[in-house]
Amino acid sequence: SGPLTRLQASAATVRTLSSSNSSSQNIPSSLWKLGRLNHVAIAVPDLEKAQSLYKDVLGAQVSETVALPEHGVYTVFVELGNTKLELLHPLGEKSPIASFLQKNKTGGMHHICIEVDDIKAAMTELKEKKIRILSEEPKIGAHGKPVIFLHPKDCHGVLVELEQA
Q1: Residue 156, burial from CB neighbour count under 10 angstroms (0-12, 13-18, 19+)
Q2: Which part of the chain is the VOC domain (predicted)?
Q3: 137/123 Cα distance (integer angstroms)
């Protein structure tokens, strides 16, 4: 009854508990599923300087600047292999990024974007679970796909974007 034997017995107990818990909790299956992390968005006060950091200093592949007037932003994507960074800069006076930068002068993380396989089903279920969605209908995002944003107060302080995969 040495330490190794006790450790093996503990591991067996944990395996038994975790397997019995998962089957007895009857977790309902969703009509939609979360996919991969698509990007992390960073609001930047100087888009050219930020592009230069990722391209010239860090050696990343950086896209051209794209204006998205319906979202009030300029976007630039930094390719990272397994995901992307989205650099956001205000476009127009009503830009949500302009108000973000007023509070965060040097910029900072703005939101995360996670892919979903069925954005309409996700919206229906999230509304039922009292998660606020910041628009009535999905909008077309920077990748030309439908997106919605979830209220940060319902997501532990993080603005979450869901994008149709």
Answers
A1: exposed
A2: 36-165
A3: 9
Rounded Cα distance between 126 and 120, Å, is 10
In angstroms, the CA 116 to CA 35 distance is 5
| Tokens standing for residue 44 | 């930047």
Where is 122: in which H helix or E strand?
helix 119-128
77 and 142 in contact (C-beta within 8 Å)? yes
Dump pLDDT digits (tens) for 72-88: 999 999 999 999 999 99
Q: What is the pLDDT of residues 87-110, one digit of tens each?
A: 999 998 889 999 999 999 999 999
The per-residue pLDDT for 24 is: 42
Give the domain 34-164 fold: 2,3-Dihydroxybiphenyl 1,2-Dioxygenase; domain 1 (3.10.180)
**Sign of the CA dihedral with 148 first, then 149, 150, and 151 last:** negative
Residue ranges of domains in the chain: 34-164
Residue 147 confidence class, pLDDT cut points 50, 70, 90: very high
The residues, any chain, with a CB within 8 Å of residue 6's CB and separated by 6 or more, are none
